[in-house]
Automatic annotation (TrEMBL):
Native source species: Heyndrickxia oleronia
Protein name as it appears in the record: Crossover junction endodeoxyribonuclease RuvC
Keywords: Cytoplasm, DNA damage, DNA recombination, DNA repair, DNA-binding, Endonuclease, Hydrolase, Magnesium, Metal-binding, Nuclease
InterPro entries (alphabetical): RNaseH-like_sf, RNaseH_sf, X-over_junc_endoDNase_RuvC
GO molecular function, one term: metal ion binding
Lineage: Bacteria, Bacillati, Bacillota, Bacilli, Bacillales
Superkingdom of source: Bacteria
GO biological process, one term: DNA recombination
Homology family: Belongs to the RuvC family.
Amino acid sequence: MTNAKPIRILAFDTSMSRPGVAIIELKRNKPTNATASITALSHVTTDAKQTHGLRAEIVESWATLFIAEHIGKHGFDVIVREDFQGRSSRQNHPVFSAWGAVDQALNKFGLTFTTPAISQSAVKKAVVGKGKAEKDEVADAVRRLTGYTGEFVVDDESDAAAIGLAYAINEGLIKGAE
């Protein structure tokens, strides 16, 4: 099983202001266990003074370029994002516009999200062990689970990695927070 093809997870922490993305690669050691590593991270920051339409175009362009650079010959086995439940249309509109932008980028490659979105608290619970973890606790847990020693330029990169890890944990592919 150690020579099996790695599982590649493309994970998005989607927002209009600063979305992040991560690729998590799982190398299977045993049928029920794998080792996780981060193979790519990125984010883009939009300007709140710009229209939602322009900001969505920027997010779509960024996501398209990231996917094009990293799709390779093996593609992605899983594509996942964090769920979002705003309290009003004013909160929902920007996030859902960014979701649509990422959807458009994926569609250019014949891709779509392959699994239901994971709630923020479920991501934190799986990765950190508590649903109300702080940003630094999430980043520390991501480092612990992946051995990542590089820099997270912004929290959105470690959050995206956590989303991919939460999927792997929830599927029983790796062990999560103890």
